[in-house]
Design brief:
The chain is of the alpha/beta class and 325 residues long. The chain has helices at 2-6, 56-60, 94-100, 103-109, 141-165, 178-186, 205-212, 215-224, 229-234, 265-274, 294-306; strands spanning 27-33, 36-44, 67-73, 82-86, 113-117, 171-176, 196-199, 252-257, 279-283. Helix content is 32%, strand content 17%. The chain starts with a helix and ends in a 19-residue tail after the last helix.
Length: 325
């Protein structure tokens, strides 16, 4: 906490983050999943925690995590807009990610190129012997902090890769759950995004851990300060509830489930308020219920059309500007 305070990061959290360059050493291989052809993009992730920062050496010891991965699905035709789709916790494989984001619909029917980055410590980036996402969402909040910081760095690097090859590209970002948090964070750091769609977003990791941890874990965390005020303060540098979005209000969109007990409707509402109450859709369901809800699909497509990423606007959707109490 002292280091973060003395360097001014708590008062100016954007200063914690550096701007990445166009990634070097990119490699692309072709593959297929769910009857969708895609490219597997990899490049060395140049993200490193700051010298002297707690947890730096441990984070850099995760060898597989030092390579960034993304699935790229291209629409037919040249110079199509791009949508960066950020997956949720425990995902990070083509089968899960392309299905969750309805890749065939977005790319082949609506004409949007997709880039689906793999979050740190997920999929091919996970630690040896770990399950997907294990280590990112952990009671050791320094690893969580570095996970979000690296996720934003890698996504911003991938956007530079897009714009290097297609300088005039319109690029939006869309995330689900943990990816909704990451999309909101990235939209607070990256300029010139066409839109940001935060779906079923977690927005306060410390609060989420307090809510979901068993009583014994909460007691231990209270004794050690692991989930105390200092932990929350340090997480300001990666908090979408602290950093200001860099895109206009009419390019911000959210959706959430009224019955979401995982990310919780309260966390989504807090982001909606921080984002100055932009268009938001609430569906009657739990955390993953969005996938079976046509209302959400229409809302996302409406957001893409409003942002100029597609030319096909779906039938009007009642976009709510209020939220459950």
């Amino acid at each position: 906490h002292e280091m973060f305070s003395s360097r001014g990061w708590l008062d100016h959290p954007e200063r914690y983050h550096a701007d990445p360059d166009v990634p070097m050493g990119c490699m692309v291989t072709r593959a297929r999943a769910l009857n969708v052809s895609y490219e597997h993009l990899t490049f060395p992730s140049r993200f490193e925690p700051h010298p002297g920062e707690p947890g730096r050496e441990r984070w850099l010891s995760y060898e597989a995590n030092r390579t960034a991965h993304a699935w790229v699905v291209r629409a037919r035709g040249q110079d199509k807009p791009w949508l960066v789709c950020v997956h949720g916790w425990g995902m990070g494989t083509p089968f899960m990610d392309l299905r969750a984001f309805r890749a065939r619909r977005l790319a082949h029917e609506l004409g949007v190129n997709l880039l689906v980055p793999v979050l740190p410590l997920h999929g091919p980036r996970q630690k040896v012997g770990a399950n997907g996402g294990e280590g990112f969402m952990t009671i050791d909040l320094i690893d969580s902090l570095h996970g979000f910081a690296q996720a934003a760095w890698d996504i911003r690097s991938a956007i530079r890769w897009i714009r290097f090859h297609q300088p005039s590209a319109r690029v939006g970002i869309y995330g689900l759950s943990l990816g909704g948090y990451t999309a909101a964070l990235t939209a607070s750091l990256e300029e010139n995004l066409a839109c940001a769609i935060a779906g079923i977003p977690a927005t306060d990791i410390v609060d989420l851990y307090r809510r979901h941890s068993p009583p014994g874990v909460r007691r231990k965390a209270s004794e050690t300060g692991a989930l105390g005020p200092e932990a929350a303060a340090v997480h300001r540098v990666v908090s979408p509830l602290v950093l200001a979005p860099k895109l206009e209000r009419d390019r911000r969109f959210l959706f959430a489930g009224v019955g979401d007990r995982m990310s919780t409707s309260r966390q989504a509402r807090r982001l909606w308020e921080h984002w100055d109450k932009p268009k938001m859709a609430w569906y009657a369901g739990g955390h993953v219920g969005f996938f079976w809800t046509s209302q959400v699909s229409r809302f996302v497509e409406e957001a893409l059309a409003q942002s100029g990423l597609t030319n096909r606007e779906p039938p009007g959707l009642r976009s709510l500007t209020s939220s459950p109490s």
